[in-house]
């Protein structure tokens, strides 16, 4: 979903890069890192947020569990709560189902699919608003879409 957001930002004419891409420039002051840690914390996301902050970039952390990890919240300028099931919720419900006095879990999408779907919808809504604010038409966005597919 983060890659999909980067693609849409590029369609808007904004400089956007995905962490790990060989063409991504170093993070610096004036940059914004949009990071996602559905369960609240991952060691890789924690480290990336720390590097970005150390380089002077601002950090926006998306998570389904805003109380689920101290380190990324300390590294983030803004924590956005996206309430949706993550892989961690899936694991907890499996553990609860193993306890006889607990009722069985509700049927849901597997692992983090619901969180990822919620991110996609959120990102598309953000892109629509950015297009309006930036005065970008669908035709202008299409003109920036690759022709190599």
List strands and helices in order, with pairings.
Layout: H1 2-11, E1 32-36, H2 43-54, E2 58-63, H3 70-75, E3 78-81, H4 87-97, H5 113-134, H6 138-143
Parallel strand pairs: 1-2, 2-3
Helix pairs in contact: 1-5
Biased composition (Acidic residues): 88-98
Organism: Arundo donax (Giant reed)
Signal peptide: 1-20
State the main characteristics.
149 residues; mainly alpha; Rossmann fold; three-stranded parallel β-sheet; 45% helix; globular; SIS domain-containing protein; SIS_dom_sf
Quick structural summary:
The chain is mainly alpha-helical and 149 residues long. It is built from six helices and three strands.
Structure write-up:
With 149 residues, the chain is mainly alpha-helical. It has a single domain, classed as Rossmann fold, CATH 3.40.50. The protein has 6 helices and 3 strands. Strands 1-2-3 form a 3-stranded parallel sheet. The longest helix has 22 residues, at 113-134. It is globular. The two termini are 19 Å apart. The mean pLDDT is 85. Belongs to the SIS family. PHI subfamily. GO terms for molecular function: carbohydrate derivative binding; isomerase activity. This is SIS domain-containing protein.
Q: What's the CATH class label?
A: Alpha Beta
For this structure, what is the CATH homologous superfamily? Glucose-6-phosphate isomerase like protein, domain 1
CATH topology tier name: Rossmann fold
CATH architecture grouping = 3-Layer(aba) Sandwich
Main sheet overview: 3 strands, parallel
Distance between the termini: 19 Å
Order of helices and strands: HEHEHEHHH
